[in-house]
Amino acid sequence: MGNKKERKDALERFTVEMNKVLDENSYKGGWKQNIDNSFLEKKLIEELAEFFLSLNHPVWTGMNVIREFVNQHNYASGHVDITKKGQKKELVDIANICMMLHDNL
Fold first, then answer.
1. In b/e form, how buried is each residue of 72-89, taking b as 16+ CB within 10 angstroms?
2. Structure pTM?
3. pLDDT tens across 51-103, in order?
4. Which of 57, 42, 58, 44 lies closest to 91, judged by CA?
5. For 65, what's the count of Cα atoms within 13 Å in the CB-facing half-sphere?
6. pLDDT tens digit string along 12-33?
7. Minimal CA–CA distance to 101: which of 23, 36, 28?
């Protein structure tokens, strides 16, 4: 897990990215007022599926359950960014949704 400073630095970098995305979407209003947990739960599954597809690994891209979910719900718009930048974006999206769900409980 690294030393305390490494953990603190990693957490700070990650929360900065989380805040950027939250700021970009602030026009939508807050999650407590405008979003119920069932929506967030579905959104979490969507983002997890997009992350696994972004890994572009045969284990994940070949998993029918992920492909079917993405296709059935028309998520990922048929394109997933498989770069490290794209993968990090998906992880930030996942973290923000987890934070919203955690805050709502």
1. eeebbeeebbeeeebbeb
2. 0.79
3. 887 777 666 555 666 666 666 655 545 567 788 998 999 999 999 999 999 99
4. 44
5. 5
6. 999 999 999 999 998 888 888 7
7. 36
Max Cα-Cα span within the chain:
44
Question: Could you give the CA distance from residue 4 to residue 25 in angstroms, rounded to a whole number?
Answer: 32
Q: Which two tokens stand for residue 29?
A: 């209003």
82 in any annotated domain: yes
**Domain contains 25:** no
First to last CA, the chain: 28
CA pair distance 2, 5, nearest whole angstrom: 8
- Domains held by the chain: number: 1
- For residue 3, being part of any structural domain is answered with no
Q: Taking 80 as the threshold, does the pLDDT of residue 4 lie above it?
A: yes
By CB atoms closer than 10 A (0-12, 13-18, 19+), residue 105 is exposed
